[in-house]
Design a protein that fits this description.
The chain is α/β, with parallel strands linked by helices. The chain contains 10 helices and 8 strands. The chain has an 8-stranded mixed β-sheet with strand order 3-4-2-5-1-6-7-8, with helices on both faces.
């Protein structure tokens, strides 16, 4: 049986993927909500500047977003928007700015300063989740180079495996001590998720000489799409669904 990750409990947690379309942002939103339901003070940072949609999934229209921060018009703390679900459970978000240009258009110094500001801001929270843009551009890995945990999200799609491995490879090359673990999303069963995980584990062990642990498996669930369309977190709309149960297990691992 696969051993699941003993996640270190760092305040800062990056949610990353090599490939788009694996449900990374949905997982970021839902995991943040799950942690808040467990009584944690949580911040979700939308680090996908070009295709930001955390606020859209939550039905929010923020007064300020990361665009204001990059323009020098506001600090990260001044750009926080609070989301509260119908049960009164809340968490903070810093929204991205959809269509503002990819991270690759920003200088390394700008990205490093943004990362350092986020690390500083995270000190006032139990957990800060960073939803990264999909891909393996060096600008993406710059934001993830913070010493916290990195959850790499992948699905059963063969291209997802290839791209997730590429992200792991580049991250380890940049930081050999990176705390990487794997989340398998949108699979028919836990057994299918185990198979997907074993494939990337074999590749990482064979070529990178590392063995990233499995953080969690999220099963395919039609309720996920319905909740996204309703612009409401899954745990608020369908708390008894299979995917909700799997997210709560993952949140439990993060909180020990």
């Amino acid at each position: 049986m696969t051993n699941h990750a003993e996640i270190s409990g760092n305040r800062l947690i990056t949610i990353a993927s090599g490939k788009g379309g694996v449900g990374k942002t949905w997982l970021s939103v839902t995991l943040t909500h799950a942690l808040a339901r467990l009584g944690r003070n949580v911040l979700l940072f939308d680090g996908d500047l070009g295709l930001a949609n955390v606020d859209i999934q939550l039905g929010l229209v923020p007064d300020r977003d990361i665009g204001a921060v990059l323009a020098g018009d506001a600090t990260l703390a001044e750009s926080i928007t609070k989301f509260t679900d119908p049960a009164g459970v809340s968490f903070d978000i810093i929204a991205g700015k959809s269509g503002s240009g990819a991270l690759g258009s920003l200088t390394k110094a700008t990205l490093s300063n943004l990362r350092d500001d986020l690390v500083s801001c995270s000190n006032t929270y139990d957990h800060t989740l960073l939803d990264l843009a999909a891909g393996i551009d060096p600008s993406v890995t710059t934001l993830s180079h913070h010493g916290g945990d990195i959850l790499v999200v992948m699905s059963g799609d063969p291209t997802s495996l290839t791209d997730a491995y590429a992200f792991v490879k580049l991250t380890v090359a940049r930081n050999p001590d990176a705390k990487i673990s794997i989340v398998v999303n949108n699979v028919a069963s836990k057994a299918d998720g185990e198979k997907v995980y074993e494939a990337i584990k074999r590749a990482a062990e064979g070529f990178l000489k590392i063995s990233p642990p499995l953080a969690g498996i999220i099963r395919t669930d039609a309720k996920v799409v319905e909740a996204i369309r309703a612009q409401m977190p899954l745990l608020a709309r369908h708390p008894q669904s299979d995917a909700a149960a799997d997210i709560l297990v993952l949140a439990g691992r993060l909180t020990g």
